[in-house]
Design goal:
Number of helices: 1
Keywords: Cytoplasm, mRNA processing, Ribonucleoprotein, RNA-binding
Radius of gyration: 18 Å
Structural class: alpha+beta
Function: Component of the cytoplasmic LSM1-LSM7 complex which is involved in mRNA degradation.
CATH topology of the domain at 2-92: SH3 type barrels
Number of strands: 6
Subcellular location: Cytoplasm; Cytoplasm, P-body
Strand content: 25-35%
Distance between the termini: 33 Å
Subunit structure: Component of the heptameric LSM1-LSM7 complex that forms a seven-membered ring structure with a donut shape.
Strand order of the largest sheet: 5-1-2-3-4-6
GO biological process, one term: mRNA processing
Order of helices and strands: EEEEEEH
Largest sheet: 6 strands, mixed
CATH architecture of the domain at 2-92: Roll
Length: about 140
């Protein structure tokens, strides 16, 4: 009976070791790399890590190598299907070409999020991000 209960702790990552993974962080960065190790807090060690940025139908990669990620910063962790990875209909461009567009996208998103937070605070009674009552 116990074997039917899903394994939901960080121990469930044991099958992901030595596989190519996509990790999305709280700040929005998207990292691709080989998961080499993890601990009980879901801190991750990625090898051969690249950070991907996207704009429109293009993407660019910036190589980071060995990357240590604190578990609390992980939003999503998923295995990359190596058979389908090359079938993605995006074209790869140089990082320096795409970086200004990506930074502009981030700035626009920040302005949008700030305007949304202001409306939620002033008109809907929500607390400010990180303010009193925002703890979990």
């Amino acid at each position: 009976m116990d074997s039917l209960i899903p394994f939901t702790t960080s121990g469930s990552l044991v099958d992901c070791v030595d596989r190519k993974m996509l990790v999305i962080l709280r700040d929005g960065r998207k990292l691709h790399g080989v998961l080499r190790s993890y601990d009980q807090f879901a801190n991750l060690v990625l090898e051969d890590t690249v950070e991907r940025i996207y704009h429109g139908n293009a993407f660019a990669e910036h190589w980071h190598g060995l990357f240590l990620i604190r578990g609390e910063n992980v939003v999503l962790l998923g295995e990359v299907d190596l058979d389908q990875e090359d079938d993605v209909p995006l074209r790869q461009v140089d990082y320096q070409v795409l970086d200004p567009y990506h930074r502009n996208d981030i700035a626009q998103k920040k302005l949008h999020d700030e305007a949304k937070a202001k409306i939620l605070y002033e008109q809907r009674g929500f607390c400010k991000e990180g303010g009193e009552g925002d703890g979990y």
